Batch of 4 targets.
Target 1
Amino acid sequence: MSTFAAIGIAGTGLGVHRKWLDAVSDNLANINTVRATDEEAFRARYIVAQANDVDGGDSGGVHVAGAAFGDAEGRLVYEPAHPLADEEGYVRYPEIDMSSQMTQLIMAQRGYQANAAVIDRARDMYSSALTIGRN
C-alpha cells in the first residue's frame, strides 16, 4: 500500500465519521423537540457505513451507504399545560436515548481523530521521503 493510498483510505474514514458526528449532533439537538400527537415525532438519523469494493477496483476505505431513521411514533408524554397538547393532554417526543447518543458521539469523535492522525502520519512520512531524496 502506498502512502497516497493510506491518505485516501483515511480520508474516506474522515468523511464517514463527519457524517456520523453530524447525525448524532442533530439527534441530540432535537431530543426535546415536541410535536402534536397527530404529527410524527422527530426521527433520529443513523448513518449506515459500507466498505468500498476492493475487488471492484476501489482502493479501499468506506463510504456512507445511506441513513436509517428512528421510529416516527416517538413517545407520548402527559403535559396538559403544553400548547401542543391534544384534548387528553398528551404531546409527542422523539424516541432518542441520550446515553446511547453520547456513546455514539464519543465513538465517532475518536474515529475521526484516529483517521486524522493517520493522514498526519502519512503526510509526515511523505515529507520525510522527499527530504531524503534531496540529500
Target 2
Amino acid sequence: MNTTPAAGPAGQIVVGTDGSESARRAVLFALREAQLRGVGVRAVCAYGGGRTEPSDRAMTGWRNAVSEPAPHLHDAVARDVTDSVEELRQQVGEPYVEVEVRCERGRPAQVLLEASQDATLLVVGSRGAGLWGRLALGSTSTEVVHHAHLPVVVVPPEPKHATG
C-alpha cells in the first residue's frame, strides 16, 4: 500500500477504524483529506480492550474478531483492516495516499490517542446513541474529543433521507 511518497510521520492523519460503516466513512474522509494535504494516513484499529474473550467482538465491532482464536486475533484484524482500507483507497483513487495500518489491543480511545501523538489530525466516526445516549457522539469519539492534543474530526453518520 505504500506506493506514493507522503510527508513525514508528523504530517500524517490518524483515522480510527473498526469495520463499522461509520468507520468506513471516517477512513474515506481521512483519505480524501490526506490527498488534499499531500500526507499519509495511519489507520488504527483497537481490539480486545485488553481481554481475550470471544465477547471482544461486541466491544470492538470488528466482524471477524469473534471467530478467531485469541493468538490469531491480531493477524485476523490486521488483515481485515488492510483489506478494507485498500478497498477504500482504490475507491478514492489517484493520487494514491500512503497508508500505514496499525492494530493494537486496548481501549479504542486510548489506542487512538497514543497513535496520534505525532499526527496533525485525528479522524473518527460517530456511532451516535441517539437522543438518550451521548447525543451525536459515541463513547470513543466523545473520549477522543475530550482528551486529544490535536484537531479532531468526527465524521457524522450518513443522513437518512425521508421518502415519500
Target 3
Amino acid sequence: MTPDATSISTRAPARLLALILCLALAACARIQPKPAPEPEPAPPPVVVEVPVPAPPPPADEIGPLLSYHQSLRRMSQGELIKELSGLGLQKRSPRVAVQMGMVLMLTRGGGDLARAQALLDGVANANDSEASVYKPLAQMLSSNCAEARRLAEHIDRLATQQKDNQRRIDQLNDMLEGLKTIERTLPPRPAASAPTAVIK
C-alpha cells in the first residue's frame, strides 16, 4: 500500500466518525425536551342563583282604620267623647291624627268638623314616610269634612232665613191684630140716609 492509500484508509473512518458525531449532535439539538404541559385553567365556579324572596307585603293599615270608623258610628255621643279623650293621651302620630279626625267628624260640638279637617289635612300634606300610608284616606276624609261643613253652613243659613221670615210673619200678625183692635174701638159709622126723590 502506498502511503496515500494508507492515509486515506485511516482518514475515512475518522471522517465517518466525525460525520456520525455531527449528525448525532444535530439530532440532539433538534430534539428538545418536551415542555411540561401548562395546567388547564380551572373551570369557572358554578354560580347558583338563589331566588331572592320577595319582600313581604306592607301591613294593611287602612283596613283596620275603616273597621274602626264603622265601630265609631255605633257609639253614642258620650262614648265618642271618651274615645276622643283616650286618643288625646296617646303619642301623636299620623294614625292617631286620622283616628281623632274620624271621631271629630261624628261629634256634634261646635267647630269639631273644622278641627277634624285640620288634623286630616295635616296628615294629607305631611312629607314623612310614616304618613304616606295614610295620605289617601286622610285626603278622602278631609274632602268629606269640607263637604259636611258646606252643608252645615247652608243649613245654618236656611235656619237663619227661616227665623227671619218667622219674625217678619209674627210682626205682620201683630200689626194686623193691632189694626183689628183699633178698628173695634172706633165708633160705628152713621147709616147713610136714603136720598129723597124730587117730585116735579
Target 4
Amino acid sequence: MRAYQFREQARNLLKSLSGKYALFFLPSFLSIFSIYLTLRETLLSIEGTSISVSARIFPLLISLLVTLFSLSAGYTVLKVIRGRQRQVSFSDSNLTFSSEIFWKLLATLMLRWLYLLPWSLTWRLGDYLIQLGSHSVVLNSNHMDSFSLALIILGGLLYLLGLFLVIVKQYSYTLADYLLYDHLLEGNYPGAVKLLAESHRLMKGYRWKLFCLEISFIGWHILSGLTLGLLNFYVLPYTTTAHVLFYEHRLQLAKDDSK
C-alpha cells in the first residue's frame, strides 16, 4: 500500500467513528500546550534569560503525556480497526495508564531512548564543533582560517551523519509501542529488549514507506504550526490513525510471509 491509500483509509474510518474528538482531546490539547512551552523557552533563550532545571524538565513531562495519551488513542483505534470496538469516548484516553500497560510501556520508551542516545550524541557533537568553529571565526575578526574551516566541515558531516542515523533508528523501533499492546493482549509479553528487536525486524525494508507516509502529512503540520497547533484537533487523529493502519498492514504482511 502507498501513503495516499493509508491516508484515504484513515479519513474513511474517522468519518464514521463516533467520539473520535473526545478520544483525542487530551493529546491534542497537550500538544498545543507543548508548542506554547517550546515557543516560550525559545524566546527566553533569545533574550538571554536563564532557564531553570525544573522549567526544562516540565516540557519533557508534557511531551511524555502527549505520547501516552496518543498511544491510548492509537490502541483504541486499533481495536476499532479489528472490529472489537465500534465507537470511542474520552474514557478510552487513559488506556495506557492501567497498571498492566504503564510500567512496561515506560520501560520500552526509556530503553528506546537509550538505544537512540549514542547516535544523538554524534549529532550533538557535530553541532558543538560547528559552533566552536563559528566562534573561532568571530574571535579571528570574521576571518576563517583552516582550523575553523576544518571544525565546521567535520561538525557538519557528524551532524548530518548523526541526524540520519537517529532517524533510521527511530523508524526501526517505531512499532515497539503497538507490539507491546498486542503481546499483552496475547499474554506473552517478551520484555522491552525483544519488543525493540521485533520492531527492528518488521521495519527492515519498510522504513522508507513509513517515512513517505509521515512526510505526506507535511502540509498539515505546516498548517497546524501556522494556527499555533489548533489544527492538531484534526491532524493528530488523522496521522495517528494512518500510523495504526500502517502497523496493522505490516503485521498482516508478516503473517502472510510466515505461511
